[in-house]
Design a protein that fits this description.
The complex is a heterodimer of chains A (114) and B (115). With 114 residues, chain A is mostly beta strands. Chain A contains no helices and twelve strands. Helix content of chain A is 0%, strand content 54%. The chains are: A mainly beta (114), B mainly beta (115).
């Protein structure tokens, strides 16, 4: 079974600084997707970034980038120039390539200090 | 981007009654929809996968007779919590798979409180 582990229940960052959220996963598959979702207090899930396992290049979306280490099964999220609006729960998620259901990690609560 | 709606956003019901939650894909067709449950300060746990026109597939430990799922059209899936109990109180989130299955969009969630 696929499992997703987020070892940091809470993280804190100063506004304008950079923070990295960790995620590891366990799978025997070679093709899959990895995601980072943001869940603000409204609880609406918002896709932050997505990575296809077959791509070696790390995905980037503006201030958000990932460090995807396939051999190590690691998928960390870096948030640069942190903003107050980045404060939220962040969930790492895994989805097999030929399967549709998504598995989530336990989440990391990010606090941004002004 | 694609939008998924849920109705109601918050429902309070009495123990023993049933409540229906609707999940709609507003601007795309979704052959597959998913239902998740999220307890306070916890992660999303997949309850079931709903495919249009067929029976839902439930995750281990989820009572299919208690959580009835109907995916009657390409834009609507419903979750009915039957004979609700206070322990069913939770946040229920649906998501819908668009097109060829590359993008999954989430609804805003429904808060269920059973008194």
């Amino acid at each position: 079974a696929q499992t997703v582990t987020q070892s940091q229940p809470e993280m804190s960052v100063q506004e304008a600084e950079t923070v990295t959220l960790s995620c590891t996963y366990d799978t025997s598959e070679s093709d899959y997707y990895l995601f980072w979702y943001k869940q603000p207090p409204s609880r609406q899930m918002i896709l932050v970034i997505r990575q296809e396992a077959y791509k070696q290049q790390n995905a980037t979306e503006n201030r958000f980038s990932v460090n995807f280490q396939k051999a190590a099964k690691s998928f960390s999220l870096k948030i640069s120039d942190s903003q107050l609006g980045d404060a939220a729960m962040y969930f790492c998620a895994y989805r097999r390539y030929n399967n549709n259901d998504m598995r989530f990690g336990a989440g990391t609560r990010l606090t941004v200090k002004p | 981007g694609a939008v998924v709606s849920q109705h109601p956003s918050w429902v309070i019901c009495k123990s023993g009654t049933s409540v229906k939650i609707e999940c709609r894909s507003l601007d795309f067709q979704a052959t597959t929809m998913f239902w998740y449950r999220q307890f306070p300060k916890q992660s999303l746990m997949l309850m079931a996968t709903s495919n249009e026109g067929s029976k839902a597939t439930y995750e281990q430990g989820v009572e299919k007779d208690k959580f009835l799922i109907n995916h009657a059209s390409l834009t609507l899936s419903t979750l009915t919590v039957t004979s609700a109990h206070p322990e069913d109180s939770s946040f229920y989130i649906c998501s819908a798979l668009e097109g060829f299955g590359n993008e999954q969009y989430f609804g805003p969630g429904t808060r269920l409180t059973v008194t």
